[in-house]
Amino acid sequence: MLCPKCEREFDRLLALSRIDNQTMICDDCGTEEALDDLFGNPHTPFITQDEEAN
User: Fold this and answer.
1) Bridge partners for 15 per DSSP
2) Which residues make beta-bridge pairs with 9?
3) Rounded to whole angstroms, how far apart are CA atoms 21 and 1?
4) Which positions ≥6 away from 35 have C-beta within 8 Å?
5) pLDDT tens by residue, 21-53
6) Mind giving me the DSSP string for 3-38?
């Protein structure tokens, strides 16, 4: 499975994104979002297909 946030390949995605509470992301991205919340940093947005084309 491809993590929609970092675009790395994983066997499974176990973390629920805090951005929309719907999207499953990898553990590393989930930890990053949790730390962003802890320290009050803005979240890194998901990579969209429009951004990939550019």
Assistant:
1) 25
2) 2
3) 18
4) 41
5) 999 999 999 999 999 988 888 877 776 655 555
6) -TTT--B-S---EEPTTTSS-EE-HHHHHHHHHHHH
Rounded Cα distance, 2 and 10, in Å: 6
How far is CA 41 from each of CA 5, 8, 50, rounded to the nearest angstrom?
16, 23, 25
Q: Give the residues across from 24 on adjacent strands.
A: 16
Judging by beta carbons within 10 Å of its beta carbon (0-12, 13-18, 19+), is residue 1 exposed, middle or buried? exposed
Beta bridge partners of 2: 9
Tokens, residue 8: 């790395």
Query: Whole-prediction pTM value?
Result: 0.77
